[in-house]
Design a protein that fits this description.
With 541 residues, this protein is of the alpha+beta class. It has helices at 42-53, 97-109, 119-122, 131-136, 139-143, 166-172, 191-204, 208-220, 266-269, 275-286, 300-307, 379-393, 401-425, and strands spanning 28-32, 57-64, 67-74, 90-91, 226-227, 240-241, 254-255, 271-273, 311-312, 330-332, 337-341, 344-353, 356-363, 368-374, 442-446, 450-457, 460-465, 472-479, 482-487, 495-501, 507-514, 531-532. A hairpin with a 2-residue loop joins strand 18 (472-479) and strand 19 (482-487).
Length: 541
């Protein structure tokens, strides 16, 4: 699995990489608040990882007891000389989820709600597709990925952008058909964290954004932190991705216009933070809510709740190059994964948005925590540094994670290209389509997404997702009654669009699926079930 601003296990975000020929080695800036004891070779190791995988910028925050160490490397944006520093903000993606659960923990401390309260009692009008889940879902259930929804189901309501509000998103969740029964097992989702954000507002009277800024950012002194759609200052890491070739993750880096996080889904993944911010955030988590001067952000009891496992996460062996990263157990708590590494329990989470990744870990028995953030999608560099730090703090034998992750990514890229080419070779473009192109034009509706419009423009088809600004492009014939998108924004994953016909030749429905075998689960085209929108009055012109 992988995640963007909604995340689970970032290993699946490891896409193929290409070298950045001509790119200068990353500039190094080291800022020490005090003097913890990170690996002596950390600067050299991080620099080598960035050069190997072609990452423009990286920031690290390490908390060792009361001491914080911050490291910054490289540039904020390719083509610009501005260097990353300890105040440069990076998108942290799904590491935002722990801020949302912490906001709820603060409200629990205030006596305004309880973890076992039913959502319908606190958020009138909330509904799931299933009546039993609607009536019995607790606040805890919202946060632990056991709702019955499929992996990433509903993400396309808000990703990569949307013109709907958070309230509209919460309302539309009732149309998402469950993949399994309620509380049966683990399937990572993001949309229910939007419900949690709406719940914060219903209980506190403040928007999620306002509550997090006032009750978390301000007390902790997180002066750089913002929500992603806030006006960003000049010290912000630009998102980068490889989007010019057959698979995402191949070819040269491109600077992306934004990170794909819209306001409605903000409680699942909108926060941007600096290394200094993340050091302060991890220190209060490591200290179970305690702050300087005897003050508390949240109680020790709520800290225990945040780290208490709820949902078992299936563990599968990792491939040979990175086999040592395979956990013995994994569970999901409230905004955190609880798992193990080399015999040590760790509290961890990853985050991914378009063009940026983050990884966070707390090692309770060592009283150490750290975060690694990069401004590209080249997960190999981030994970190599992450495991280098983990090995250091758990006293494990050194491993060349840079070489191991590079080998793993190369193997994965070869396999993905092989699968992509095999699928293309099985196509029969000479067969079909069954109907004149203009017959496919029209407005189509999915219950949870809304409308999608296909237009006939001078004998060529175009597709537009009406509730996703900028998600539009050409629709090209692939075979039979299947077409493929060519989105104008090449940062959007292309999809196959298959028209199902009635016996009389009219269009009954449309099914979709991603073209790429490595597409992030947030491109949940397969969950869409469009049918002609008869209320739209016929074909689009």
């Amino acid at each position: 699995m992988l995640t963007r601003w909604m995340t689970s296990v970032i290993v699946a975000l490891l896409l193929g990489v290409a070298s950045m020929s001509g790119m200068a080695g990353p500039a190094v800036t080291t800022i020490r608040v005090e003097s913890p004891s990170p690996p002596a070779d950390l600067d050299a190791y991080a620099t080598r990882a960035m050069k190997t995988f072609g990452v423009p910028g990286m920031a690290i925050a390490i908390v060792d007891g009361d001491r914080i160490d911050t490291r910054a490397y490289g540039v904020r944006k390719l083509g610009s000389p501005a260097r990353v520093d300890a105040d440069t903000t990076f998108p942290i993606g799904s590491n935002t989820k722990a801020f949302t659960t912490t906001a709820l923990a603060i409200l629990v401390d205030q006596g305004k709600l309880g973890w076992n309260d039913r959502v319908v009692d606190r958020l009138p009008g909330f509904r799931m597709y299933d009546a039993y889940a609607s009536q019995n879902m607790t606040i805890t259930d919202l946060l632990v990925h056991r709702s019955g929804l499929g992996l990433g189901e509903g993400d396309l309501m808000v990703f990569p952008d949307t013109n709907r509000t958070r309230a509209e998103l919460v309302h539309s969740i009732r149309y998402l058909k469950p993949a399994t029964s309620f509380r049966k097992g683990f399937a990572y989702d993001n949309v229910l964290y939007s419900v949690a954000g709406q719940l914060v507002q219903a209980v506190s009277g403040q928007t999620w954004e306002s509550f997090v800024k006032q009750h978390i950012f301000a007390p902790l002194g997180m002066r750089d932190a913002t929500v992603a759609y806030d006006a960003q200052g000049p010290d912000h890491a630009a998102p980068h991705a490889r989007i010019s070739e057959a698979l995402r993750g191949m070819g040269p880096q491109s600077v992306l216009p934004n990170d794909g996080v819209s306001r409605p889904i903000a409680p699942a993944g909108a926060i941007c933070a600096s290394a200094n911010d993340m050091g302060r955030w991890l220190r209060v988590q490591l200290d179970h809510g305690a702050m300087a001067g005897g003050k508390r952000l949240f109680s020790a009891a709520q800290s225990n709740m945040l780290w208490t496992p709820v949902t078992v996460v299936p563990v599968r062996p990792k491939p040979a190059p990175i086999a040592a990263t395979t956990a013995d157990f994994a569970e999901y708590a409230l905004g955190f994964f609880v798992t193990d590494y080399r015999g040590h329990k760790i509290i961890t989470h990853d985050g991914g948005v378009l063009g940026g990744l983050s990884e966070v870990v707390i090692i309770p028995d060592k009283h150490v925590a750290f975060a690694v953030m990069i401004n590209s999608e080249d997960a190999g560099a981030m994970l190599a540094v992450f495991y280098h730090l983990l090995d250091h703090y758990v006293d494990a034998p050194p491993t060349d994670w840079i070489a191991n992750f590079h080998e793993f990514i190369d193997l994965r890229q070869v396999a993905a290209l092989k699968a992509l080419h095999a699928g293309q070779q099985q196509m029969h473009p000479q067969r079909g389509p069954s109907l004149p192109l203009q017959a496919y034009a029209g407005v189509y509706r999915d219950p949870w997404y809304g409308t999608m419009t296909i237009s006939d423009v001078q004998g060529k088809l175009r597709i537009r997702f009406d509730r996703s600004p900028g998600m539009q492009g050409a629709l090209e014939h692939a075979q039979y009654d299947t077409f493929r998108t060519r989105w104008s924004d090449r940062g959007i994953e292309d999809a196959y669009v298959t028209f199902d016909l009635n016996p009389d030749g009219s269009i009954a429905a449309i099914r979709m699926k991603p073209v790429s075998p490595t597409a992030d689960f947030s491109w949940d085209y397969q969950d869409l079930h469009f049918v002609p929108d008869n209320a739209a009055g016929g074909a689009a012109e």
